[in-house]
Structure to design on (553 residues):
């Protein structure tokens, strides 16, 4: 079987597995968030934090819960890194510097998992497990909780109550993320991923050189890293490292893990609003954009444009021979169109146009299918915009799921879609204007600019992947990228929850002959078109200066 045929079968198997998981997992998640019962361990957690899980919250209270919990998490993770050299299982590693500790704390709490350090030579066992791995669970749960609050805004009427943040957070971790992560970790261990708390081993290579091999609780962190669309590898090589990703099957499994919850949440949405077909419309838009990205990057990498790649007979620089061009492209598209940031190849080595597609996947807002929770609420915001555009075209007050999209709703949606582009373009421009971006570029010209643009796009969209050639571990970039991650994560949540509260207070609007049928394929096409046009108009100049200029040179 040829490599192309094998790559096609991998995609077919992946789509089939996601299709099989979509309905049961989506319905299960809907049942979790609609349940009135509390497990014993959940009640213990509520008592320990002094929360009443049955008390409904309006959107300001829900937002305060999100922000307070996240602020405490940042502080705890920052302090843990600053004192890791004084804790057990430190492996002899020193404390993390203040700017890098700030960047890493913000990175993991915001579900970005951007890493300006090499994990195997910087982070102790305690920091990796009690700090980084814990935040992989809770940051993913925060995103899902905010998405569920927005869904309740669509599903409820004449009330501003959006549920209880603490109940949503705890249920998501206890009933969804932990069980799925345990299963995934066991499979990864069985397939060769390591899981231990041993000391660093020094071995002698075949050439007689000494090499330090770092152990760790890798499989458990790998499972939630992908399942929670976190990213953040235990090792600097991330999912190209054989201890994290031993073979072709684990590579397929990790791609499945990072896609399964985001692609199942539209079913949760459809079930909770009482119309599963609405969920299929959202799923269709996500799937179309993701599939187009996979086809584009895979074709470009197999075509291996560029003199060096053509002379070499392939575009394998920066890629693992275990995975090849097809599996590397599939992983790269899936990780940039979710908020994962995990990589099994280095995007800096992709062709100019391939890198542009990966950048575009993040610039879309990572909504195809996006991160755990953030992908769904980002796509629902775009659905509101698409409905508004359709209303303008026919001269009718726009409605979505029985809710009128009025002045307040469209202002909130517009603020949401403006935040991330503003962060990306302003902070990237500052880095270039001040010379800080240029000093961290390892390439000149269009590709060097793409490195800077990619870094600030990744941080602002809470992705965490990088063009590997970008030297990010400087005081300037640790600070500025940290600010991008903070603002890019929590400012949009303000508008999402405010929109949820506004929608929940409305009376339902009856369906008439003039109502736009948002569960139809026509609306899915309109939604995809609106996403691509809005993003294209916003980012085309920046893309033209970077990956397009490089690819067309």
């Amino acid at each position: 079987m040829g490599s192309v045929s094998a790559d096609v079968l991998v995609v077919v198997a992946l789509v089939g597995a996601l299709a099989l998981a979509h309905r049961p997992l989506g319905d299960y998640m809907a049942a979790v968030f609609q349940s009135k019962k509390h497990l014993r361990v959940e009640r213990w957690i509520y008592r320990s934090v002094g929360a009443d899980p049955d008390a409904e919250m309006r959107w300001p209270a829900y937002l305060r819960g999100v922000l307070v919990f996240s602020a405490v998490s940042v502080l705890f993770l920052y302090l843990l890194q600053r004192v890791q050299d004084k804790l057990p299982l430190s492996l002899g590693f020193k404390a993390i510097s203040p700017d890098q500790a700030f960047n890493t704390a913000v990175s993991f709490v915001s579900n970005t998992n951007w890493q300006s350090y090499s994990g195997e030579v910087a982070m102790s066992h305690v920091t990796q497990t009690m700090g980084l791995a814990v935040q992989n669970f809770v940051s993913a749960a925060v995103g899902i909780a905010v998405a569920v609050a927005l869904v309740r805004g669509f599903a409820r009427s004449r009330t501003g109550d959006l549920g209880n943040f603490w109940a949503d957070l705890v249920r998501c971790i206890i009933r969804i993320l932990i069980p799925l992560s345990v299963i995934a970790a066991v499979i990864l261990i069985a397939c060769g991923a390591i899981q231990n708390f041993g000391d660093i081993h020094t071995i002698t290579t075949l050439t007689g050189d000494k090499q330090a091999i770092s152990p760790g609780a890798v499989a458990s962190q790998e499972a939630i890293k992908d399942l929670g669309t976190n990213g953040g590898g235990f090792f600097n090589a991330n999912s190209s490292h054989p201890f994290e990703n031993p073979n072709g099957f684990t590579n397929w499994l990790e791609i499945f893990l990072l896609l399964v919850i985001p692609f199942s949440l539209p079913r949760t949405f459809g079930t909770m609003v009482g119309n599963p077909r609405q969920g299929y419309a959202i799923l269709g838009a996500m799937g179309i954009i993701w599939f187009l990205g996979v086809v584009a990057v895979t074709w470009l990498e197999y075509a291996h444009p560029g003199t060096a790649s053509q002379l070499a007979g392939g575009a394998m620089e920066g890629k693992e021979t275990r995975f090849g061009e097809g599996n590397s492209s599939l992983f790269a598209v899936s990780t940039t169109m979710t908020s994962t940031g995990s990589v099994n190849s280095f995007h800096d080595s992709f062709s100019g146009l391939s890198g542009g597609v990966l950048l575009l996947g993040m610039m879309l807002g990572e909504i195809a299918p996006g991160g755990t929770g953030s992908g769904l609420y980002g796509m629902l915001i775009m659905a509101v915009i698409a409905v508004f555009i359709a209303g303008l075209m026919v001269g009718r007050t726009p409605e979505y799921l029985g809710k009128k999209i009025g002045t307040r709703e469209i202002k909130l949606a517009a603020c949401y879609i403006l935040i991330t582009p503003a962060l990306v373009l302003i902070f990237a421009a500052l880095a270039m204007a001040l010379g800080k971006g240029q000093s961290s570029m390892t390439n000149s010209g269009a590709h060097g600019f793409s490195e800077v643009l990619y870094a600030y796009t990744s941080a602002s969209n809470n992705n965490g992947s990088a063009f590997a050639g970008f030297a990010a571990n400087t005081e300037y970039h640790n600070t500025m990228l940290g600010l991008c991650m903070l603002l890019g994560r929590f400012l949009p949540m303000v508008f999402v929850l405010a929109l949820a509260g506004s929608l929940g207070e409305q009376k339902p609007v009856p369906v008439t002959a003039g109502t736009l049928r948002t569960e139809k394929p026509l609306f899915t096409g309109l939604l995809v078109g609106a996403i691509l046009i809005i993003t294209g108009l916003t980012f085309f100049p920046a893309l033209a200066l970077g990956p397009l200029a490089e690819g067309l040179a």
Notes: The mean pLDDT is 92. Strands lie at 201-204, 210-213, 399-400, 403-404. DSSP finds 19 helices and four strands in the chain. The CA atoms of residues 121 and 241 lie 14 Å apart.
